[in-house]
Amino acid sequence: ALANMQREVGAGNVKLGNRNEAGTPANPGLTQALRMRINLNGRLQDVAQLQVFLGMQDVRDPRRQAVLRIVLTATPERFEQVIGDFTQFVSTIRPEAAAQTRNGGHR
Question: Contact, 101 vs 59, CB < 8 A?
Answer without folding.
Answer: no
